[in-house]
Write a structure and sequence with these properties.
single chain; 173 residues; mainly beta; Immunoglobulin-like; five-stranded mixed beta sheet; 1 helix
Length: 173
Amino acid sequence: MYEPNVVGDWQEYDEHAGLRVRVHRLEPAEPPRGRDDAADGLTYFCLRVTVENRGRRHLGVHLEDGQIDVRIGPDGESAFLDWRNSQFIEGFDVYPLRRATAVLYAAGTEASLSLVDVQVQLRVEEEWTERRLWSGGIGVHEGPAGTQQSAVRDSLAHQVSVFLRDQAEEGTA
């Protein structure tokens, strides 16, 4: 069974030794070049997707529009993606022990932002990787479950975090 990552978790790719990715810093933020007219009445937020190379050779990485899908709320509605303000990784060679980060600006109804799912599909050396999913939300803090606010203890992101931590503890005997 495939379990989603929690925002802030690293995900390694077996097919590319040493390559790992994470979605992190999901937070409310205004776009640097101003709001898009199509996002009128919506609340903006920002997230980062970082690709890290812990392998022995450089890897050409592409993370452009269409390779990141952001869904919000319990019904998984598509968030408004502000491509004009976002910064992608377009054909960048990530050398060993280096990182590259894409910054994405999106918007949605404020009530839906407590549940945000981000799906990422990298292209590495002209090959597509499997899609990976991260779950989180605005107001859900990254890090151990003990540091999260009590108001979000019953949220899906918290439940996923607890599940993944319990699974990791079972496997480390």
